[in-house]
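Supplementary Methods S3. Complex input for the zinc ion-bound model.
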Amino acid sequence: MEIRHKRSRQREKILELLRATKSHPSADWIYERLKKEFKNLSMGTVYRNLGILINQGLVRKIDFGSTFDRFDADVRPHYHFICERCGAISDVEMPFDETLNRRAGRGCNFEVRSHRIEFFGICEKCGG
Ligand code: ZN
Ligand code: MN
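Predicted complex, serialized as structure tokens:
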């Protein structure tokens, strides 16, 4: 069942912000930038709108199972690099390897549909 959502200025602005940055921000970062413009904005509404954008396939959540979630308006399959010192997340300029799904599923009865790879190390700014 498809849930329709009323167009919302807040949600449009959140998407605009995410599309204008390559920094994979947190919900907190978004909130800090929009709270002046939208007086009734709360962390709850930021999270709710992010959830809707994710359901609409316009945003994806980068979930590391720890700390806080980060968000990306680039929904094409791609890999990320995470700095172990400052936590910065960058896109990795490396082609997404579609063959990995098939290779992972070889020899077992799993239907592998997707995969995720994160690279870790020290970023340029931190002296990598
Ligand atoms: Zn760093
Ligand atoms: Mn990304």
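The chain has a mean pLDDT of 91. The radius of gyration is 17 Å.
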